[in-house]
Amino acid sequence: MLRIVLAEDAVLLRAGLVELLTRGGHEVRAAVGDADALARAVDAERPDVVITDVRMPPGFRDEGLRAALELRARHDRLPVLVLSQYVATAYATQLLGGGSAPGGPGGVAGLGYLLKDRVGEVAEFLDALCRVAGGGTVIDPEVVRVLLVQQTRGRPLSRLTPREREVLALMAQGLNNQAIAHRLTVTEASVVKHSGNIFMKLELDPAEGNRRVLAVLAHLRGEGSPGRTDADT
Amino acid sequence: MSGEAISGDAVSGDAVSGDAVSGEQPAKPLPPGEPADPQVTLWTALRHRPPPRFLLSPLPPRAYCFLLSGAFLGLPVLLVLALLIAAGLLLSVLGAGLVLLTGAALLGVPVARIERRRLRLVEPVVLPDPHRAMRVRDAGVRVWVRIRLRERATWRELGYAVLLGVVFAPAGIGVTLLLALAGILVATPVLVWALAPEPVMVLPGQAIPDPLAAVPFSAAGVVGFVVVAYLAGLLAGAQVKTAWFLLAPREEPLSRRVLELTRSRVRLADAFEAERRRIERDLHDGAQQQLVALTMTLGLAELELGDGSPAAAALLARGRGEARHALEQLRELVRGIHPRVLTDHGVAAAVTEVALRHPVPVAVDIDLPRRLPDAVETTAYFTVTEALANAARHSGASHVTVVGRLERERLRLVITDDGCGGADPDAGTGLSGLADRLAILRGRLVVSSPVGGPTELRVEVPCAA
C-alpha cells in the first residue's frame, strides 16, 4: 500500500483517480487542485509517491511539473509520477533533465512521465506507479515512439526489428526482463536475447534497472539528434 | 521562379482606396484629403475662359444672386446672433440666459444647412453634412443639443455664420451697389434724354447737357459691368472656398486612417488568436478530460469484472480502445489549433516537437534569448509547420533545417530544404496565407525556390518587447 498525494485540477479526473487508487489498495492522503496546495500537502503528509498533472492553476501551464521538481529538490528523491494530457518531449526533458547531468536533483530515480490516457489501463497504470514509488523510472511509450521515429532515419535504430523496438519501448518504461516477457507473452530468455541485440546494435553497455532506461533515453535524445529538445530553456 | 517574393507591409496605401465620404452622392465629389483640393468653378472660369465667354455665361448673374441672397441671409443672422448673445448675457443670472446662449451657439447649424444648398447656385460640388446623422425627433432635444455642442463642425459653422454676417453680407451689398451704379452709368444717355430738361449729374456740379455727351459715361458703365462681374466672381469664389473650409466634413489625413485600419487588422488577428486559444482550452479542459475519465471508468469496470465474463471484458476493452482513439484524434486536432507546448515553452520547443513528428529529418536550431509576444510566436510556429508540410508534400526533400535567431528585435527564421524546388507562392493558399499572417505583424516572407532546389524560406518579424 502506498501513501499518495494527488494533484489534479479537473474535479472529474481527481475523483476518478482517487477511486482508482483506492481500489488498487493505496491510500490517497490528499487530493488537491493546484501547485501550492500540492506543496503544502506533501510537506504535511510525507507521502510515498506524488501524482501530479503537468498543467495546473493558476497559470495552467506547467505548474504541476515545476512543483514536482521543486518538491524533489526539497524532499530527497521523492518519487513523482507526472501525468500529461499530451506528449511533449520538452516536458520529458524538463523532468528528466537532472538524469543526464550527474548529481542533478535526485537523478531520475523515482520519476515517471505518463500520458493521462494510460490510467485507463488500470492494472498497468498501478504497476507503473509502484515502479516509480520503488525508485524506478517510467517513460511513456509515446515519448519513446516519437524519439524512435526520429532516430530510425538512417541510424543504427533502423536496424532494430519491430520486436526489438517493442522491447526497447518497454525497457524505457522501466520494466525488467521478466515483466517485458510477461507483457509480450514471450519467454524471458528471448527477451534477454532481444535486449542483447538492442544494446549491441545501439552500441550501448548492457546495464540494469534505471541505468538501462537511462542509457536508452540518453541514446534516444543523444548527441547529433536533429530534434534536440533543450533549445527552449 | 527563383527569387519570388511575397512581402506584406502593413502600411500600403491602396488598402484604403475605398471611400468614406458619407452623405449624398455628389456629381463631382469633394475628394478627401487636403493636398488635391478641388478647384472653385468660378475661379477656374475667371482664369481660363476668355472674358466674353465668361461674361456671357450664366456665372456672373448667379454670383450676383448668390452674393445678394447671402446679404439677405447674413445680416439677419448677425442681428439674431447679437440679440441672442446680448440677451443671453443679460439673463445669464437667470437660467434662461444659458438657453439663449446655447441657441446662439447652435445658430450656425441651420445657417450652414441653408448655405450648403445656396452654394449650388455657383458651385456644382455638393458639400456633405459634417454632422453625425441624427434626428432631433429620434434622439430627443437634450441629446441632440449635447452631441451637436460637442461636434467641432458646429463651432466651425458658427464661425461661418459670423463671417457671413460681418464680411460676406456687406461685400455682397457692396457688389450689388456697384452693379446698380454700373447700370445707371450705362443708362445715362437714356436718362438724360428722358429727364430733359431736368439736369442730370453723374459727377457733382457738372450737368450733362445732352444724351450724346453721356456716351462716355455709358462706356464707363460697361467697363464697370465687366469689373463687377469679375469682382463678384472673385468674391463668390472666396465664399465658396471659405464654405469648403468651414462647412465640409474634415477628412482625417490618409495616414491616420491607414494607421487605424492597421490597428483594427491587428485587433482582428488578436481576436482570432484569442479565439483559437479559447477553443484549445475548452477542448483541453472539457472534452479531453471527459474522455480520460471515461477510459478510467471503463478500466475500473474491467478490473471489477475480472475474469467473470470474457465477452463483457472484450466489449469493455473495445470501448476503452475507442475512447483512446477519440482522445488521440482530439489531441491531433488541438495540435492543429494551437499547440499547448507553444503556449508553455515557446517557439523553439514547439517547433522541435513538430520536427520530431515530421517524416523528413529536421534539424532545429532555434536559439532565442527570451519568449516573444504571443502573436509572433504563433505566426512563427505556423509558418514553420507550413514550410515543413510543404517540404514533405512537394519537394521530396531528404533533409530540412530550421534556424531561428532574434537579431535587433527582429525574429529571423530560415527554413531550408534540399528538395527539388520550384515552390510557387501564388499556387495554393499556404504560402500566401502565411504572408498575410506575417503582414499583420509587419513581417516579411521571402521565398527562394529555383527549379532543382534548394528551397529557402526567410521570415522576418519585428517583435518589440
Which structural category fits the helices and strands of chain B? alpha+beta
- Determine the N-to-C terminus distance of chain A: 38 Å
Instruction: Give the integer mean of the pLDDT values of chain B.
Output: 82
Total number of beta strands of chain A: 6
User: CA-to-CA gap between the ends of chain B?
Assistant: 36 Å
Q: What string, H for helix and E for strand, traces the elements of chain A in order?
A: EHEHEHEHEHEHHHHH
Class from secondary-structure proportions of chain A:
alpha/beta
Strand content of chain A: 5-15%
Number of domains of chain B: 3
Strand content of chain B: 5-15%
Radius of gyration of chain B: 39 Å
Share of helix of chain A, binned: 40-55%
Q: What would CATH call the architecture of the largest domain in chain A?
A: 3-Layer(aba) Sandwich
**Element-level helix/strand string of chain B:** EHHHHHHHHHEEHHHHHEHEEHEE
Number of helices of chain B: 16
Please give the share of residues in helix of chain B: 55-70%
* Extended strand count of chain B: 8
Specify the overall morphology of chain A: globular
What is the mean predicted local confidence, pLDDT of chain A? 78
Number of helices of chain A: 10
Which two chains have the most extensive interface, and how many residues on each? A-B, 38 and 44 residues
Break the fold down into its secondary structure elements and pairings.
The complex is a heterodimer of chains A (233) and B (465).
Chain A: E1 3-7, H1 11-23, E2 27-32, H2 35-45, E3 49-53, H3 63-74, E4 80-84, H4 89-100, E5 111-115, H5 122-133, E6 137-139, H6 141-151, H7 162-172, H8 177-184, H9 188-201, H10 209-220
Parallel strand pairs in A: 1-2, 1-3, 3-4, 4-5, 5-6
Helix pairs in contact in A: 2-3, 6-7, 7-9, 8-9
Chain B: E1 5-7, H1 41-48, H2 51-56, H3 59-90, H4 96-106, H5 108-118, H6 136-139, H7 141-150, H8 152-186, H9 188-195, E2 200-201, E3 207-208, H10 215-247, H11 254-305, H12 310-337, H13 340-345, H14 347-357, E4 362-367, H15 374-395, E5 400-407, E6 410-417, H16 430-440, E7 444-448, E8 455-462
Parallel strand pairs in B: 4-5
Antiparallel strand pairs in B: 1-7, 2-3, 5-6, 6-8, 7-8
